[in-house]
Design goal:
- This is 3-phenylpropionate/trans-cinnamate dioxygenase ferredoxin subunit.
- Keywords: 2Fe-2S, Dioxygenase, Iron, Iron-sulfur, Metal-binding, Oxidoreductase.
- It holds the Pfam family Rieske.
- The chain is mainly beta and 113 residues long.
- The protein contains one helix and eleven strands; from the N terminus they run αβββββββββββ.
- A four-stranded antiparallel β-sheet has the order 2-3-4-9, with no helix packed on it. Strands 5-6-7-8 form a four-stranded antiparallel β-sheet, with no helix packed on it. It has a three-stranded antiparallel β-sheet with strand order 1-11-10, with helices on one face.
- Strand 5 and strand 6 form a beta hairpin.
- The longest helix has 8 residues.
- The radius of gyration is 14 Å and the shape is globular.
- The chain starts with a helix and ends in a 5-residue tail after the last strand.
Length: 113
């Protein structure tokens, strides 16, 4: 198997890179899992579980600040690289999913729910 095959075998195609709005979260459903997709201001694509660990709220409806995403309801912030909360009231991390870019397309690996 080549590296190109690994990208398509283990990862799901989500969208074209140019479809992601820079600095704003977008929702994707991958293997039945809600995923918040973020193209940060430095051009890095992040994929995290879309559900805030504090209040079961969609993070893709929140705001991005640098490398964090903020829950719109109570203001919890999560690091987009690690999923670790960087501000209360959340104390539990959210899942972070691997992202690959190939030929201008975004692929994400999310375990089936």
């Amino acid at each position: 198997m080549t590296d190109a095959d690994a990208v398509t075998d283990e990862f799901e195609l989500v969208c074209a890179l140019d479809e992601l709005p820079k600095g704003e979260p977008a929702l994707a459903i991958i293997n039945g899992v809600r995923v918040a997709m973020v193209l940060d201001v430095e051009g890095v694509v992040h994929a995290v579980n879309d559900t805030c660990s504090h209040a079961n709220v969609s993070l893709s409806e929140g705001e991005v600040d640098g490398c964090t995403i903020e829950c719109w309801l109570h203001g919890s912030r999560f690091d987009l690289n690690t999923g670790v909360p960087t501000g209360p009231p959340a104390t539990a991390p959210i899942a972070v999913y691997p992202v690959r870019i190939k030929d201008g397309d975004v692929y994400v690996a999310v375990p089936a729910s």
